[in-house]
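so the lab meeting is tmrw and i was supposed to have these ready like two days ago... anyway. pasting both below. for each one the top line is the aa sequence and the line under it is the structure tokens. i havent really looked at them closely yet so no promises
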Amino acid sequence: MTPQNKGIQSIHELQGFLKDEKQKEYSIIGLFKHFKSDELTNLFRGLKRRGIPFGEAFLKLILMTVGQMTIFRCVNSQDNNADGGKDAYYGIKNNPMTNWRTLVLVMFLRFEVLKQRSVTNITNGIKCFIADDTALAKRGKKLEGISRIWDHVIHRSILGFKGLFLAYWDSVNIVPIDFSLHNEIGKKPEKPFGLKPEELKSRYKKDRRTNLPGTGRFAEMRTSKIESIIRMISNAISKGITADYLLVDSWFMCEELIRFIFTKPGMYILGMCKFGNPKYEMNGKLYNASKLLETCKKTMKIKRSRKLKAHYYTLDVAYKGMVVRLFFSQYANQSSWNFLLTDNMSLTYYEAIRIYQIRWGIEVFFKEAKQYLRLGKCQSNDFDAQIADISIIMITYMMLSLKKRFQDYETIGGVFRDVQNEMIEDTLSDKLFGLFIELVSSILCRLEINPLEFIQIMLEENILSESIINLLRKEMEENNLRKAS
């Protein structure tokens, strides 16, 4: 049997010779070390864990995410070298005392510090908050708080949660910084949450003490998404995160959110709106969006943007006592019209479209996180585990984004595949080095040469690096002890 278990787990000296220093620095483990800060260390120290330091378990959970492995599969795999059993990791994810929201924000603030070292850092670019939701499908009807939700992509109801995310665009990267999970009670009183009475009773239930982070996250599941996104933005601003714009789609564009942004000096809202019932005041009269567009066609000369291949109108109106600017636009070869709303009264149509297209970045995050990091795939019955799983995915995405920023990858997918290859290479190098130790030891024994004496001779003659010799000596000693036993 090759000595590749206990001793080989600590082969950092050999890795210094086998792996390029820059590559090692930007590996997941290397990046995690950079993310460590005094604030994060204090958080780790105060978090409850079982049989393994929280920081080590947290890093292992990140590596499981990159490896697309469940806890059970990882701990029970043949090549597992993790400390602690599966209960240690389940205990961390199921713990309602862990403040995952704070942990994610602390990691993001560290990301902001680390990105300053990048040559791609832009100090005067546009910075944006982006809010959007996505359907997270689930299989089990016993999950805590599960319900049927409406998926706007496939236009039917599915079993799962709605994930509401707040992302941040810093002119180079888009990274998620906060989220909440929501269920939907539905419109049928006889089937609340889209479940039959017996299915509703069979859902997992967990008692949580008041004033715990997990208790608050479970309670926000029934709050409105507008209320939740306002709370997320307020929390981010309180941590010193600033943005020039909040970008939203038509679902989130409402009076409550617009009025909230009006109270935040230096930040504007920009979003798509629907041609619906909301009334806008112009020249002392109220019009809905369709009537405003008809008025524009009759009284205004249409403008053309050659760069965007679109025709448009710009109109300043009042909405619920707030002065806003509307952009009605029609693209080439399209008969339908769209319109954007902003409270930045100096914004031009071209600038508005250029900024609003940044919102597409959160859709890319949803696609990449679901494809590469298994976003929404956690099937744990415990709601705290659902929160923990998504939080770890968001932090992993931050780390991959930082690696992309430093090493000029074209896509997150390219970073993800490279990181997975690094993990495979590390595992393979562990095994190969174990075989190498076994081979050297066997050859020396057949030649009737004492391995320890041979190492001593090599050390005295400076033929081998001292670090490699010390490692060889340690491995051979452990190998001899195993054989003797």
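ok protien two:
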Amino acid sequence: MEFIDLKSQQRRIREQIDRRIAAVLDHGQYILGPEVTELESRLSEFLGCRHTIAVASGTDSLLIALMALGIGPGDEVVTVPYTWISTAEVVALLGAKPVFVDIEPDTWNLDPTRLTAAITDRTKAILPVGIYGQTADMTAINRIAAEAGNLPVIEDAAQSFGATHHGRRSGALSLVGSTSFFPSKPLGGYGEGGALFTDDDDLAERMRWIRVHGQQRKHHHPVVGINGRLDTLQAAILLAKLDLFEEEIALRQAVAEGYARRLAEAPLTLPSVAEGNTSVYAQYTVLSDERDALQAKLAAADIPSVAYYAAPLHLQPVFAGLGHAPGDFPVTERIAATGLSLPMSAYVTPQDQDRIAAAILA
């Protein structure tokens, strides 16, 4: 059994993938070729935003957004300690300080009731994460950001891309949205990739400059940039996958519903989707007070599982200088100690779900 089944999807679209890759090989525009432009256009249409900037990775997308906002030494960016390290890593790379806020006990996303207390006169951005497939409470976060002086909000939608919040797509819920096309993501390529989304014309232009070494036009570099371009082959693959994306979101949701029915009697906490949200279930994560024993039992039954973010960011040695200690973010620490992700993709069969549920209930 695959933890994330990419092979079943590939069997459905292999012909389209091969055709699109062949087109790239024929025209030879391997960097920022026409498929990149087509992908950007289709993603803008999907989200309903003015600008999409395709970039080399999800990490680069966050870094470029922060650079475009001018964030640097002495600044603070508010985010969560329950996420992949890149969310806070990019803040530190620019010499700024990540300021952590604990998460909600049900959605496991940034708790807006704790946000105001974390904002200081050095806060230059808020960076919420859509963990495991649903967005944070972006309505509340945007309101608090506006009340604090129109602080920019960067939505890390690497796991929630395709989900909705009160009818609007994740990635288009704030000043800047960011996503990743890492292969395991709901919309993933066959390598690295990412994208940025915004309705702000000036910010979009600046992010495009930064993507290509800060270049506004040939031989003219008004800002410091990076090599953050998405290669054309990845764009070609993503275009083939995008044709299936909405169908696969529905299939993922059906798999999640199947898990919920089968595990209703299990001594677990199942994922909760907030009112007004939908989830794309980037992962199907449950909480168990006997997480490690459960994972070992699943492994013995040849069922893969992953304990994501088992060491939260505030306890990582790289952030020791922030001065945090165990107990500082108790909700994060509880979820980190008990969370276990089960096999999830659009292609987890009912038979697989039966087998997984039987192993857990046993």
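from a quick look at the 2nd one: Residues 314 and 321 are 10 Å apart (CA to CA). The first strand starts at residue 51 and ends at 55. will dig more after coffe
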